[in-house]
């Protein structure tokens, strides 16, 4: 893909909603050259694909937009990984990966980490509240989910930050056009992450603890003996994927939600006055500007969807973000409205066998964030000149503002 192709792709990624609207109104499916896939845009069609994993395989779910250069691939060869994950498998393989993940991310276990998340969120706000301003993405939205997923996995806080950096670099390397030297640097960061995870996996193999690395390792490679290199690489792949899904999605959700609330002052002030509406606001935010806009699927046989015949091996892009703006399911879908009564179920966290197993934790972090901000920073506003448009990251995964500058009356330190 050349630079001009990436510019066209960036434009689509920054605002895909006009394309979605045209595709929903069209007969059949719409082929999108920039995605090299047929766009599945209507809510009913998206749900049909997600209900039929035997016909629409997830094998290409994580197909990158960019193929790393040979020098970056040479760096990758020094690490571990490259195995399929729960996101890119079907059938028995998917069930094998999914079962211990569901157990490890149970509501009971995730609730146990929420006290840590709440305390950590307070500490992060304490750091910027006295200044009266913050760049929310870098100083809060990226930090809280990274620390929380590190806690769930069982990493130390220092190692969690290293892991979060490496997983972010993996996303950049595979979905952003980087110069060759930057690709090599990113690959080295990913290998550092893989080695860190491998060390944890082997240590937890010998000395299990109450964390997700211990739970999944024991389930997927039972026993007590030394792991083979392939087994270690398989486990590293699973946890590398979990890191990316576990923090980048929540980071995006926090940033987008705060942005949309502050753009519509009346809704922000309503939440401040009536915080009992926050759970509904969380669901509306996930519907309105879905962090994971969609995933690719690959047909396993000739199928017909929405009147369009798709031969075996055809790529489709299943657009959750479009389904969540479908007027056939959501009245006035292009309005962000936290007061919706009896809202229809959205696809902000997927649906069916590939539905997000960590959605409870992601939504809980957004909920506690809104509770904290409305209580401590009710006068929070968009900063850096109100007429400057917030720039959205050019991606259909982890869609969020690139930066979000906010201002508010500085908190005065409590008197001793």
What's the architecture, going by CATH? Orthogonal Bundle
Helix content: 40-55%
CATH class designation: Mainly Alpha
Structural class: alpha+beta
Beginning-to-end CA distance, first to last residue: 61 Å
- Mean pLDDT score, rounded? 92
Number of helices: 16
Please tell me what the overall shape is. Answer: globular
Question: CATH superfamily, called what?
Answer: Cytochrome P450
Protein name: Cytochrome P450
Keywords: Heme, Iron, Metal-binding, Monooxygenase, Oxidoreductase
GO molecular function, one term: heme binding
Family: Belongs to the cytochrome P450 family.
Layout of SSEs?
Layout: H1 3-14, H2 17-25, E1 30-32, E2 37-40, H3 43-51, E3 56-57, H4 70-76, H5 91-104, H6 107-128, E4 133-135, H7 136-141, H8 143-153, H9 157-175, H10 180-206, H11 212-220, H12 229-263, H13 265-273, H14 278-288, E5 294-299, E6 303-305, E7 308-310, E8 315-319, H15 320-323, H16 359-376, E9 381-382, E10 405-407
Parallel strand pairs: 2-8
Antiparallel strand pairs: 1-2, 3-5, 4-10, 5-8, 6-7, 9-10
Keywords: Heme, Iron, Metal-binding, Monooxygenase, Oxidoreductase
Family: Belongs to the cytochrome P450 family.
InterPro entries: Cyt_P450 (IPR001128), Cyt_P450_CS (IPR017972), Cyt_P450_sf (IPR036396)
């Amino acid at each position: 893909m050349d630079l001009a192709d990436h510019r066209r792709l960036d434009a689509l990624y920054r605002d895909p909603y006009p394309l979605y609207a045209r595709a929903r109104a069209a007969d059949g499916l719409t082929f999108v050259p920039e995605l090299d896939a047929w766009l599945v845009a209507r809510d009913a069609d998206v749900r049909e694909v997600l209900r039929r994993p035997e016909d629409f395989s997830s094998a290409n779910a994580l197909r990158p937009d960019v193929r790393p250069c040979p020098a970056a691939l040479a760096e990758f060869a020094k690490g571990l990984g490259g195995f399929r994950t729960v996101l890119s498998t079907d059938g028995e393989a998917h069930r094998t990966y999914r079962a211990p993940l569901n157990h490890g991310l149970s509501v009971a276990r995730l609730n146990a980490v929420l006290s840590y998340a709440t305390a950590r969120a307070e500490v992060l706000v304490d750091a910027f509240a006295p200044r009266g301003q913050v760049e929310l993405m870098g100083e809060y939205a990226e930090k809280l989910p990274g620390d929380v997923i590190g806690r769930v996995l069982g990493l130390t806080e220092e190692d969690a930050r290293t892991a979060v950096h490496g997983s972010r670099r993996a996303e950049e390397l595979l979905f952003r056009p980087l110069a060759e030297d930057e690709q090599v640097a990113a690959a080295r960061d990913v290998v550092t992450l893989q080695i860190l995870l491998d060390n944890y996996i082997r240590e937890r193999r010998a000395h299990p603890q109450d964390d997700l690395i211990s739970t999944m390792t024991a389930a997927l490679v039972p026993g007590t003996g030394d792991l083979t290199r392939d087994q270690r690489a398989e486990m590293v792949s699973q946890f590398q994927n979990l890191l990316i899904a576990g923090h980048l999605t929540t980071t995006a959700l926090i940033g987008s939600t705060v942005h949309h609330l502050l753009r519509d002052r009346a809704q922000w002030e309503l939440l401040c006055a009536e915080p009992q509406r926050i759970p509904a606001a969380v669901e509306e935010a996930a519907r309105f500007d879905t962090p994971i806009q969609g995933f690719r699927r690959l047909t396993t046989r000739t199928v017909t969807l929405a009147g369009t015949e798709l031969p075996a091996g055809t790529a489709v892009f299943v657009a959750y973000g479009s389904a969540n703006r479908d007027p056939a399911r959501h009245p006035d879908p292009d309005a962000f409205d936290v007061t919706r009564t009896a809202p229809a179920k959205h696809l902000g966290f997927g649906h069916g066998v590939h539905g997000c197993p960590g959605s409870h934790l992601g939504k809980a972090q957004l909920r506690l964030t809104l509770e904290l901000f409305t209580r401590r920073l009710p006068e929070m506003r968009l900063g850096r000149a109100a007429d400057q448009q917030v720039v959205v990251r050019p991606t259909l995964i982890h869609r969020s503002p690139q930066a979000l500058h906010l201002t508010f009356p500085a908190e005065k330190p409590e008197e001793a």
